[in-house]
Specification:
Blueprint: E1 7-11, E2 17-22, H1 23-29, E3 33-41, E4 47-53, E5 64-65, E6 67-71, H2 78-90, E7 97-106, E8 109-119, E9 131-138, H3 139-146, H4 155-167
Parallel strand pairs: 3-8
Antiparallel strand pairs: 1-2, 3-6, 4-5, 4-9, 7-8
C-alpha cells in the first residue's frame, strides 16, 4: 500500500470520528483528521529534539520541527498513533505523556492535534524518508526561533510550541 492509499480517521470540526478516507483524499479535500505531536525533551528538561523534514514530505517539506508525530490511522487511538510515530520517526520505543488537545487550521490543512511529551536520553534513530537531520536545542533557543516568522518552522509545530510554552507556564 502506498502512502496515499493509507486509510486515516476522518473527524468532524468538533473532534468526533465520523469515518475514514485515504490519506490522498484527506489531503486533496482538506478533510478534518487527527494527528499526534510528541515533544522529545532531554532528561534534564533543558533541551528539546529538533529536526529538519526531508524535501519530499507531503506537507511542509524541508522545514524544521520539534515534534515527532503524524496522522491518526483509521481505527487507531491517538495514544497508539503517538507511540507508533515516535518509534517510526525517531526510533524511540516508550510511552509519551499526554499533555493537551488543540486544533490546527491553515488553508486546507485542518486537524485535531493530540499533544504529548517524553523525556529521553537514549539513542535516536531517524527515519530517513521523513527526517533529514536532527539535534538537541536549548529551550530558550526554541522559544526564540519559534517566535521568528522568518525561520522556516512548520506552522503547526510553531503553534504547538507556543501553546506548550503557555501550557507549562512560560
Amino acid at each position: 500500500m502506498t502512502l496515499g492509499e493509507e486509510r486515516v480517521a476522518v473527524y468532524d470540526r468538533h473532534g468526533a470520528v465520523i469515518g475514514s478516507a485515504t490519506r490522498a483524499r484527506m489531503r486533496a479535500e482538506g478533510l478534518w483528521h487527527a494527528a499526534t505531536s510528541v515533544l522529545v525533551r532531554s532528561t534534564d528538561l533543558g533541551e528539546v529534539y529538533v529536526h529538519r523534514r526531508t524535501a519530499d514530505k507531503d506537507v511542509y517539506p524541508g522545514m524544521y520541527d520539534c515534534w515527532a508525530g503524524g496522522v491518526v490511522g483509521a481505527g487507531e487511538s491517538p495514544d497508539t498513533a503517538a507511540r507508533r510515530e515516535l518509534a517510526e520517526e525517531l526510533g524511540i520505543h516508550a510511552e509519551p505523556r499526554f499533555l493537551f488537545r488543540t486544533r490546527h487550521e491553515l488553508g486546507s490543512v485542518r486537524f485535531h492535534a493530540f499533544v504529548y511529551e517524553i523525556r529521553w536520553d537514549g539513542p535516536i534513530v531517524h527515519q530517513p524518508e521523513e527526517i533529514a537531520a536532527g539535534w538537541w536545542m536549548p529551550l530558550a533557543e526554541l522559544r526564540e526561533r519559534t517566535g521568528d516568522p522568518d525561520w522556516p518552522f512548520v506552522p503547526d509545530g510553531r503553534q504547538f510550541a507556543t501553546e506548550w510554552f503557555e501550557f507549562r507556564g512560560g
